[in-house]
Amino acid sequence: MRTLVIGDLHLYASAFRKPDHHAARKLSAASRDLARLAASYAARGPIEIVLSGDVYDLAATGSSPVEQRLAKIAAHHEELHEALRDVCRRGGRVVFIPGNHDYELLNEAAQRWVETHIPGARVQPWFYRVRDVAHIEHGNQHDPDNAHPHPLLPDGDPLGILLTRQLLHRLGDLRLLELNDRTPVPMLLHCFWNYGLRTPGMVLRYVLVGLAATRRARLPDAAQRAEASARLDRFVKDAGLDRAAVQQLVDTSPRPTHTDGDVLFRRMYLDRTLLGAATLFATLAALLLGAPRVALGIFGVAAAIGAIFGMYKNVYRGRVQDLLQAKAHSLAGEAAVRHVVFGHAHKEYDDGAYLNPGSFAFPPKKGLRTFVEIDGDDARLMHMHAGEGVVDLAPRIVAFNNVAFNNVAFNSAPRAKSADHDVDAKKVG
């Protein structure tokens, strides 16, 4: 049975207000394409589809009961959910792995909704193994800004989800998600350019949310640790894994940013934001009091401090992909698997051991959607060419001749040279 791994759909339901209506159209197109992809594979025999986290953007759909949010999202993307039901009806499997944006799938109510709405599907906590071929995980547990204190017992929203729920959902625009590794000045300029006079209010809310989060920051208490241990016992028993080996994965996870107030304060750049706000108010006050030289002096000092901050390297830019790559290579040895598949970073990657399909909904190359296919003992990135046109990316194309799928073609993405992996495409079907 072939396994398809799909990453980071980020399906959500909202009023799709401007300026986020463009993202809504992208998500609708992505869910339709995935429905056709699933139907094309399923027509040739039972398959397994592993949705490797952030399938649903529950944080961007509000804070109502999770089953209500899931039902809202499913109503917007019914064609996809029907295709997943059909995969199960044909003898295949559908597996949901929670990510940081849909970690609430760990809730019993959410799992019941999945099992009821897609009979035969199930939620697999934390990670999923395909024999000794692949370890599949969302990957957020290796990113401090989006990790939980324990992967089986989430304790509040990690930093990235806190900002999505408290700011971006209220704003009705998820485009700022792609700027999460930028420093304050580029972010502020982006906000002024796109939101104009709404920006000061956004900054104020950002500061208030951040200060409240720093006050709440803490590690789990004894009762929560005991519950996490009990869940780990059930997890390893159900998955047939060695407890000591899985416990090591827990122990080597980084401390989540949102559990350390000092780290959170600096990571949110609250020191720079508050300094900038204080400078602005002091400058305006000096001008109102008729002291332009004082105002100019305050502004000059602030500009100098800002220039010094600007000389420092942005240590967060590209950090997530680096963290995932390093963890994947160590995990491949620790877990004795050939491949480790992560999502989360929204960047395609394949060096033979570490594979990342990127975001199926928001691919970097226009018209192409990437997924991982596991066939036998090998895993590889595959490109789906959406629409009637076919774009050649490699000399050998693997194609479905399926009229309902508009003769969409698939071909293997380029991968780093490795003596242990065959780089030629294989015939599908």
Description:
The model is unreliable at 15-19 and 388-429 (pLDDT under 50). This protein is globular. The chain has two domains: 2-153 and 318-412, Metallo-dependent phosphatases (Purple Acid Phosphatase, chain A, domain 2); 182-218 and 259-311, no CATH class. It contains 13 helices and 13 strands. The strands form two sheets. The chain has an eight-stranded mixed sheet. A five-stranded mixed sheet has the order 5-6-7-9-8, with helices on one face. Strand 8 and strand 9 form a beta hairpin. It is α/β, with parallel strands linked by helices.
Core attributes:
five-stranded mixed beta sheet, 429 residues, 13 helices, eight-stranded mixed beta sheet, alpha/beta, 2 domains, disordered C terminus, Purple Acid Phosphatase, chain A, domain 2, globular
Indicate the topology.
Blueprint: E1 2-6, H1 21-42, E2 47-51, H2 66-76, H3 78-89, E3 93-96, H4 108-117, E4 122-123, E5 127-130, E6 134-137, H5 159-171, H6 184-195, H7 199-216, H8 222-239, H9 243-251, H10 261-267, H11 270-288, H12 292-311, H13 319-335, E7 339-341, E8 348-350, E9 354-357, E10 368-375, E11 378-385, E12 398-399, E13 409-412
Parallel strand pairs: 1-2, 2-3, 3-4, 6-7, 7-9
Antiparallel strand pairs: 1-10, 5-6, 8-9, 10-11, 11-13, 12-13
Helix pairs in contact: 1-3, 5-7, 7-10, 11-12
